[in-house]
Write a structure and sequence with these properties.
Layout lengths: L1 H19 L5 H4 L4 E5 L2 E5 L1 H7 L26 E4 L15 E3 L2 E3 L2 E3 L2 E4 L5 E3 L4 E9 L3 E7 L4 E11 L6 E2 L4 E5 L9 E8 L2 E3 L1 H4 L12 E4 L23 H7 L4 E5 L6 H7 L4 H8 L12 E5 L1
Antiparallel strand pairs: 1-2, 3-16, 4-7, 5-6, 7-14, 8-13, 9-10, 9-12, 10-11, 11-13, 11-14, 14-15, 17-18
């Protein structure tokens, strides 16, 4: 019984100290390999154990309600690893998810999220536990809710017709956050869903499967800049997705694959884009041409993926 008391006293001490020092991750600062006997059972207090017990203070940095992206001066280093506690997420809508527009290049602009079809007034739900950083009108996005999660991600729910949460509210996975709509710059009612890491938008379909399974592709997944650059993706079709599960795989994937495409009679940049599953913007960027450039039979284009 004494060891049980000591165990919880230790945890309480760490918790109080971390709350008083929000800028310090005490679990990372101290080297814990402590053995405590609790009811004759050995319990190992490792960093992972303590991180699970002591919630991360996700409000300690860049906590600004007034701007969509408070991380403008933050430098994000890739590849980076994301971790999830669960193997599934809660669906942001209460019916089958139909993706009408994907992450990628769309009408000459970067579309940094996915659009999910809904009817104005449909309820929306939080994909994960988190805290509401922003619940207000945002230029272009209209009525917007931004949830910050404990693994560093933020999920953005845009074009709402009604707010269901307030800033600083603590939200549980699957909890109601508002109603979908057509506010802001929207062509028809839909949910514009964005997944950000420190202000950098990640292709949501790289992380999650948007079908009935609500599956997270991996509880530990590595992200490279390929999945943060809309111009290498096409908003009309899903990119080929191969999750990177180790750092070695992520580093190896950075070696871009190049091939030479010889223009055929009747080819257009649009047709080449579709046949090679790459955006027109990516072709133009790699070959230093514009989307209005004239291409001729026999011309060689570099296709870089």
């Amino acid at each position: 019984m004494k060891s049980l008391f000591t165990f919880f006293l230790t945890i309480l001490t760490f918790s109080v100290y971390s709350q008083k020092n929000p800028d310090l991750n005490i679990v990372d600062e101290l080297d814990f390999e402590v053995l405590k006997k609790v009811d004759s059972t050995e319990t190992i207090l490792t960093k992972d154990t303590l991180n699970a017990i002591i919630p991360r203070d996700i409000k300690s940095e860049y906590w600004d309600h007034t701007v969509y992206n408070p991380f403008r001066d933050e430098v994000v280093v890739f590849p980076l690893q994301l971790k999830f506690e669960d193997s599934t997420y809660a669906s942001p809508i209460g019916k089958d998810k139909v993706v009408t527009s994907r992450y990628g290049w769309r009408r000459g602009r970067a579309h940094k999220g996915i659009d999910i079809d809904l009817i104005t007034g449909d309820s929306l739900f939080a994909m994960f536990d988190g805290i509401v950083r922003m619940s207000r009108y945002s230029r272009g996005h209209g009525k917007t809710v931004v949830l910050r999660h404990y693994n560093g991600l933020e999920t953005v729910y845009a074009h709402l017709s009604k707010y269901g949460v307030k800033e600083n509210d603590t939200i549980k996975k699957g909890e109601y956050i508002g109603k979908g709509g057509v506010s802001g710059n929207a062509r028809g009612s839909h949910l514009h869903l964005v997944v950000n890491y420190k202000g950098v938008a990640i292709n949501p379909e790289y992380l999650f499967e948007f079908d009935a399974s609500n599956a997270i592709r991996s509880k530990e997944i590595w992200v490279t800049q390929q999945w943060t650059r809309p111009y290498v993706h096409n908003s009309k079709r899903q990119s080929k997705i191969i999750p990177l599960l180790t750092e070695a795989e992520a580093v190896a994937s950075l070696k871009k694959q190049k091939k030479i495409y010889v223009v055929k009679r009747g080819d257009t940049l649009s047709r080449i884009s579709i046949n090679n599953n790459i955006s027109i913007a990516a072709i133009c960027k790699t070959n230093a041409i514009s989307k209005t450039s004239v291409i001729k039979p026999g011309q060689k284009l570099v296709i870089e993926k």
